[in-house]
Structure formats: C-alpha cells, structure tokens
UniProtKB/TrEMBL annotation, chains B, C:
Gene this protein is translated from: paaI
Lineage top rank: taxon: Bacteria
Annotated source species: Antarcticimicrobium luteum
Entries under InterPro entries matching the protein: Aromatic_CoA_ox/epox, Ferritin-like, Ferritin-like_SF, PaaA_PaaC, PaaC
Gene Ontology BP annotations: phenylacetate catabolic process
GO cellular component, one term: cytosol
Annotated protein name in UniProt: Phenylacetate-CoA oxygenase subunit PaaI
C-alpha cells in the first residue's frame, strides 16, 4: 500500500466521507462508477415494467400514485447520474454503455409485469429488497453517493408501503384478485431474492468493496434480513411464499429458505431473461428517436448564448 | 337542459380533457428523449390526473346519481366522453406531443384564469389549484416549443409538421354551444368564443419566438366537447384505460 | 390431472395459439406492403380464427362447464391463456411477421400431420380441416421468407434480425410436460420433443434457400403453453380483443 | 364527331362492350381511368375503417366475417386495378396518384368507425349505397369494368346482408346496443346519402358519361332509390332516420327527404373530413414502409429468372 492509499483507507475506516476532489485509488473510482452507474440504469429501466401499467391503472388514485412513483424513479436516476458524474464520467457515456450492453441494470427488471398485482408486488418485494440494499449504503464512504442514498431511501420506503397497500387490497379482495396476488408472489419471489446477488463466498471483489465501505453487508446477510422481514408480511396478507423449505429456525433466529435458481440468474444476466430484449430495445429507441430533440435543444441553447454575448 | 345538466356537461368537458391528455402523456413513460423530459412528462400527467379527480368528482356530485370520479372515468364508453379532440390524437413524435401540450396549456391557462372568478365556488377552488400547475406546464411547453422550433433545421421542420397536424383541432376550444351559453349566463364559466383573441395573442407570441408561422386556416374538427363525433383513437385509449374495471367489475383496488 | 383436464389444456394450447396469432396477423389489415399481401394476411388470419372456433369449441365441450368458444376467447385473463409465446410477440416489420408466420406454420404443419392420426376422432377431424389450410400458409410464408432472405441486402439483414429475435421462442414448441405426456400416452397427440428433428430439417431447408443461417442456440423462452409466464404483450392484446365482451357483459352480437 | 367517334358511339348505343384493344376516345379512356381508379382506391382505403374493429370484434364468428369482408374488399381493389391497367395505366402509377392526393377515394371513408354498430351501419348503409351505384354499372360499356362489377356486386350484396344482420342483433339487443345502433345511423345517414354525389344538375360531365354508358343513372335517381329501399329497413329495425322531413309522398311514390349538408361534403373532399389525414397517412406509411419488401421481391424474382435462363 502506498502512503496515499494508507491515508485513504484510514479516512474510510474513520467513517470520513470521501469527496470528489479528494485523492482516491483508481479502482475505488472505477468500482464506484460501475456500481452507481448500474444503480442509475436500474432506476431508468425500472420505469418500464411499471410504466407498462400506468395506462391500465384501475383507479385515478392508483394511476396518480404510480405516476408519482415512476417520476421519483427517474429522479433517482438523475441524482445517481449526478453522483457518478462527480467521478469524471458523463451521463451520456454511461447511457451509451447501457445501450451497448457493456453496463448492466438490475436483472429484476427483465421480468414482466403481467397483472396489476405485479405492480403491488414490485413495490412490496422489489422496492423492499432495494431498500434492504440501500439503507446501509447511506453510510457508504463516498460522499455524493451517500447523500443520494439518503434522499432515495426516504422515497423508496414510501413506495414500498404503497406496494404493500396494493397487495393488501387484492389479498382482501375478490377471489380473482387473491389469485392474482398469489400469482404475482409466485413469479416474483425468487427474482427478488436474486436481487442481492449470489453468495459473497463466490465473489472475489466483495472483500475490497467492504474494506472501502462501498459495500456494507454481505449479500447473504441482506437476503436473510429480507426474508425475515418479508415472511411475516406475506403471512399477514394470507399469501403463500412459494418455497416448501421455508420455515422458522428457532436456533438461528432466522427463517430457513431455498436459494433461487442461480442458473436462471446468470441466464438473465447474459441477456436471456423474459424481457431483456424488449427493455434494451425500448431504451435504445428512446435514445435514438430522441436524438433530434437533444440536438435541437443544444443548438437552441447555443443560439441563445450567442445572442446574449452579442447583446452585451 | 337544466342548469345542473349543463354544469354536469361542463365538468365532464374539463375532466375528460385532463383525463385523456393525462393518459396520452403518460404513454411516454420511460421513452422520452432525455431523463429530464421523462420526469417532466410524468409530472404533467400526474397533475392532469389530479385535476381529473377534482373535475369528475364534482361532475358526479352535480349529477347526483351516486357516480364517483372513478366510475365516470372507467365505466363510460367513448360516445359519453366530452374531451377536446386535441387531447385524444396520438402522441406522434416528441415534438408533436409538446406542441399539443403547448396548444392545450395555452387554452387551459386562459380558461382557468376566467374560472377563478366563477360564481360557483367549487369551480373557482378547482381552478385555483389547477391554474398554478398549469402556469408551470405552459412555461415548460412554451419553452420547449421555442427550443425545438428554433433549434436545428430538422427540429424546425418537425415542429412545423406538428403544428400543421394539430391546428385543425384548436378551433374546437372556442366553439361555444348551449352548454357554454348556460354556463356563461350563470356566471359559472366564460363564453369560449370570447377567449380566442387572448389565446391567439399568446400562441402567436410563442410561435413567433419559435420561428414558426401561425396557420391562417380556421377550419376546425369538432365533436369531442359535445360527444357528437370523436376520433377513432379514443376507443383504443379506453380499451387500455378501462381494462381492469371492465374485466373485474365491482372489485376495489 | 385427469385425462380430460389434460385434453382441455391441450385444446387451449392449440386454440389460444391460433387465436392470438390470428389477432396479430389481423393487425396488418390495410397496412401491408402490397395488395396481394393484404389479401394473404387477411386470409391467414381468417383461417386461424376459424381453427380457433374448432379448438376452443372442443375445449369447452371437454371442460363440460358450459363455456363455449367465445366465452373462452373473450372472458379469460392473460394468465389463463395457453398460447405459444411466439404468437404474442409484436408484429415488427413485415419481415418479422412473415418469419414468425413461417416458424409457426412449420411447427403447425408437422404437428397437425401427427394429429391426423389422433385416437380422438374430434381432434383428427379438426386436424384434417386445418392441415389443408396450413399447408397453404406454409407454402406462402416459406416462399416469402426465401424471397426476402435472398432479395436485397437490406431485406437480407432485416430477415436475419427477425430470425435472431424470434428464434428464442421456437424451443417452447418442443418442450413437453405432463399434459403432453398424458396426450401421448392416450394416443391423442404426439410428444412434442419428438418433432424437433423434422422441424429443424424443414426450417433448415427453407432458411438455406433464403441464404439465412439457422441459429445454433437452443435457449428457449417458456411459459406460454403452461401459462406460467407470458410476455407483457399478451395483456395489451386482450384489452383490445375482449373489449366489447368485457364492456357489455351478457350482450349478444 | 369524327367517323371513329360516330362508330364508337354506335357500338355503345347498341350495348356492345368496348374492349381494351378497341379504338376509344381519349376522354372516354381518361374518364374511365379516373372512375375505375377512384373506385379501386375506395376499396383499399375502405379497409381501414373496418380494419379498425377487427381486433375488437365481439365474437369469433363476427371477427371471421369481418376478416372475410375486408379480404373481399382488397380483392375488389385488385380486380379494379386490373381493369384500369387494361387502359394503359399501371397500378403503381394509380397508387402514387392516390398517395399524392391527386386522385380521390370515396369520401365516406373519411368518417370514423366509433362503435361496433358502425361496422353494422357501414355494411348496411355504405355497402347498400355502393351496390345501388354498382348494380347498373354491371351494364357499363367498358368490358373489363362491367365484368369486374358483376363479380363485385355479388359479394357486396352478401356484405350488406351481414351488416344488416349486425344492426338487427343490436337493435334487438340491450338498451346500450340499441343506443349504439341509433348513434351509428345518426352519424352515417347523411354521409351515405353523399355517396351518390351532388345533384347531376350541377355537373357538366354527367351528360357525356351517360352517353358513353360509364354512368347509367343520375345521382338523384340513385339517391332516391337508396332512400326508398332503406327507410323500410330502418323501420323494421325500429331505428329512426335522423331526418325530420322524411316522409312518404303518395303522389311521387317515393319518400321525401332532406338533402345532406353539401358544404360538409366539399369540405371532406378538400381534405377536411374527420379522418382524411389518418387515412392517407396510413396508406402512405404502408407504401413507404413496404418499399424494402417490394424491392426485395422484385430482386428475388430477377435472381430466379436469371438462374432459370442460366440453367437452360
């Protein structure tokens, strides 16, 4: 370790925030760009499965709530791109990397939203899992990232409550609604567990990330915490978690549960999820169809700036 | 037509227009050219749906048959809708969507300003809440129309085409009928014909800045505000919008 | 699962696939690249809807709960549909539509040929009627795939892209499950896995003539035939398809 | 009149058919090209308002019938383009003239189909009016046109019966269906009357067309015949024709009725109908989006022909 590296690590260990202008190891910067960028992309792509139901929301109130949620998510994307930009990468570069497939987004968004209950389940399970990941990151070592996380967590927990509220309505609703709610949890339970990533035992990078406080807990810890929190919620709803092995382990003080199918996880990562093609195509088309707009806005801003200079 | 029947129609015209335009705008979700526009479009749609709740809520109250805003939004077929035709035409490209928004916002802001002084306090209250939101919508859509009109050659051409496509739907905003006459007489809402001049001045100013020529034609498609003849597009909007309420009648969500 | 339960599922798989594909094909109405294609696409859709009446009619008979073909078509939600995912993906350009048609027709013709010998006469009868129509569909779609694959550079690229997009939906046709096993055991329908070789040979021959390379990947999207996971597209199809029956329950047309 | 013209007119007067290779006046040819071309275009554009409801047809049977009908219409377009081609104009030329707005199609198709009842009303009223126009044209002087008309009329009367059958179901159906049926006739009655064109008194061309047997009856005759036929049908359905002046005139032996709003007719002709823009845009896009297909089919046909020659 060089002197600089030692000092850097000491600051991290002392829970000091690293700011953009501070010295930082190249790998710290690169890892953060990847992590924050992926998170930003997830917010953006995450608009699509929910957007799929905005035009079909069942009441005006639900439509308004969903619109507000999707708007928040785009906002989160914006904070996160800004945080990433402080590390010396532009939003456009990150976008190009998303569109070319070089950078990933959370694989959960490669699953479809097939019924209105999925909108509830996405709020409850997917946002629930996201929060589980994000809450500790409020204490991450990189200042802009930490501050973005604080804002985001506040809104996400609101979203999660709204999702749970949708599930509640359906679980207490007609037979068809109950069936819809159960079908949603059947499809989304394991993909939600996958959101924490494979066991850290298999990951080489986790140790370094944890030393840098870019990662605070292991994937397995978070997954366990998610299961422990979610099972009683499902019971309260009267819904069944699709796992025969799920049961309370008195000794451990945790629920035992089945691992998701990691082969499916890697398949989805590779691009073979149910919606990978549709999601990426939607974003690519938004970007290429919108080029003339971005060009025009830039051209107009330049004209205005030139006119201002000329007038002065 | 009793005064309350006219008032019911008036509320539907307001609420259906915000509902249908809110629906169209929300179709952009996740597909806008820049992230900031995704946010702005979602925000506009959200405001419009919020206004819909107020207008259709009042419509149900006035009607007095126990229908609430959701029942009015989700359980009427196309012919019972009273939205401006402008709000139901397809989004087209981003330029057309923003031009439509601007042409609507300009009317909306002028109209709501008069409704602030409505003799019906319920309407004045809705107008007060809505007009703040709409002032912001108008500022944004006007700025965007200017930027795209006076941007590149391509964007200028696209905005010209958008304006040409949409202009025939503007006249309907100012074509008064018996409902409007009843509202004007009761001091509830202005005679729409009387607003055209102010509208043209506002729109003309922005289009000029956008280097776009205001079309001279006064030809106007009509039939949305009175339900006589919608476009074929509305029916398709409703198949989506009303799906869940139609497929699962009586369920609560 | 009783034999009749399996038979019901089998009939839904056939009828839902023809229904959904018929719907997709009919979306082209009035928009095809040449008049002859408008006619051919309408004809294909018509045949598929006719087959749907037979399959879903039989499904209702087997189910024995008094549901007829229309009730099955218009009053089930997406999760109860059993169509191949291939049939619900969007049309894309004309090339993708025809490639999808060809990939489906090839399976359909191979499968129906076996159903001609079904131990259930009702099924053999439907297969006999359908297989004549499908022979013609296959001839047409194969010819078109060849012409567009081996046409211009642009058309070749488009057909390559269409094949790449659609190929992951082919595998589902040959993924057998308990329903298929029950049908095979009863001599009603073949084990789908056993048809892959014949299919690959047929498709390979046409693609070769079309100067297109048959993809090697065996990765397959699944979930349509057993209803476990459709694409997001099916729900949108149903909002249209079922609109009138949902909006006016109990009316007869 | 030249000798040729006199001979030509004598043949027409003797009810002989003129065939493509026969001598004919330039104006006869030009008028026929315009008339047959417009008729062909109407069949093509006429697919759109009906196609609008194929994906929403209420039963499988109705969907099949509507598909068959639209297919028939495309087929009629094909016969008619072929008949026009015998006069020395190509289908592509005619199509380009349609897309540029140089040639027209029946203005009825610039009205929207807003409910399922409109599909019934289009069959009953629009096809009804079309048949009224077309039946006499089976005896038109130009052979290919006459033969096309014979085939077309057979199918059209079938369509009309199907349309009437839809109306019957609705008129005998629920309150909502009845209302839908009445709404359809309210919107489509006058546009149907317009299909016969303005009174011939105002037309300079009609006399010549009638002498050439390109036109057999006057517009007013056909309109009267249509009204006389349709009123009892509407009565049988229990639907009201939206015309306060409609009443049986014992003396004339015909119904008296109100003229349609001819200002609206000319507005629609000028391009200001409710759907002119959508219809023409749909056809233009079909044509331009399909260019690569037509090019490829041509290229492939050439390759095949070349290979055949090489093999011989």
């Amino acid at each position: 370790m060089t002197e600089e590296e030692r000092k850097f690590q000491a600051r991290v260990d002392a829970n000091e925030k690293i700011e953009p202008k501070d010295w930082m190891p190249d790998d710290y910067r690169a890892t953060l760009i990847r992590q924050i960028g992926q998170h930003a992309h997830s917010e953006i792509v995450g608009q699509l499965p929910e957007g799929n139901w905005i035009t079909r929301a069942p009441t005006l109130e639900r439509k308004a709530i969903l619109l507000a949620k999707v708007q928040d998510e785009a906002g989160h994307g914006l904070y996160l791109y800004c945080a990433a930009e402080t590390l010396g990468v532009s939003r456009d570069e990150l976008t190009e990397d998303l569109l070319s497939g070089k950078m990933k987004y959370s694989s959960i968004f490669n699953y479809p939203t097939l019924t209105w209950a999925d909108i509830g389940a996405v709020g409850w399970l997917v946002d629930g899992a996201a929060i589980m990941n994000q809450v500790p990151l409020q204490r991450t070592s990189f200042g802009p990232y930490s501050r973005a996380m604080i804002r985001i967590c506040k809104e996400e927990s609101f979203h999660q409550r709204q999702g749970y509220d949708i599930m509640m309505k359906m679980a207490r609703g007609t037979e068809a609604q109950k069936r819809m709610a159960q079908d949603a949890i059947n499809r989304l339970w394991y993909p939600s567990l996958m959101m924490f990533g494979p066991s850290d035992k298999e990951s080489v990078h986790s140790g370094q990330s944890m030393a840098w406080r870019i990662k605070i807990n292991t994937n397995d810890e978070l997954r366990q915490k998610f299961v422990d929190q979610t099972v009683p919620q499902a019971e309260y709803l009267g819904l069944t978690i699709p796992d025969e092995n799920l049961k309370w382990n008195e000794e451990r003080g945790h629920y035992d549960f089945s691992e998701p199918d990691w082969k499916e996880f890697f398949d989805v990562l590779k691009g073979n999820g149910p919606c990978n093609t549709d999601r990426l195509t939607a974003r690519q088309e938004a970007w290429s169809d919108g080029k003339w707009v971005r060009d025009a806005m830039l051209a107009h801003a330049r004209k205005k700036a030139a006119a201002k200079v000329a007038a002065e | 037509m009793t005064r309350d029947e006219a008032l019911f129609e008036f509320c539907l015209r307001m609420g259906d227009s915000t509902l249908v335009l809110g629906h169209r705008v929300s179709e952009w979700c996740g597909h806008a050219p820049v992230l900031e526009e995704d946010i702005a479009l979602a925000n506009t749609a959200l405001d419009l749906i919020g206004q819909t709740q107020l207008w259709l809520g009042l419509a149900g109250e006035v009607e007095g048959k126990g229908r609430d805003a959701d029942q009015l939004a989700f359980l009427r077929d196309a012919w019972d809708f009273r939205n401006l035709l402008l709000t139901e035409v397809p989004n087209g490209d981003f330029g057309r969507t923003l031009m439509r928004q601007f042409l609507f916002d300009a009317w909306h802001s002028v109209y709501l300003a008069r409704l602030l002084k409505s003799s019906d306090k319920r309407i004045a209250d809705i107008a007060e809440k809505a007009s703040k939101e709409v002032a912001y919508h108008l500022e944004r859509s006007a700025d965007t129309v200017v930027a795209l009109g006076d941007g590149t050659e391509e964007s200028h051409q696209r905005m010209e085409a958008a304006l040409a496509y949409l202009w025939p739907y503007v006249g309907e905003m100012f074509a008064g009928d018996a409902v409007d006459a009843a509202m004007a007489e009761a001091g509830i809402a202005p005679d729409p014909a009387g607003l055209r001049e102010e509208y043209d001045a506002l729109v003309g100013r922005v289009l000029a800045e956008a280097t776009l020529e205001m079309p001279e034609s006064r030809f106007a498609h009509k039939g949305g505000r009175n339900g006589a003849m919608h476009t074929e597009h509305l029916g398709h909007i409703l198949t989506q919008m009303q799906w869940l309420q139609r497929a699962y009648p009586g369920a609560s969500w």
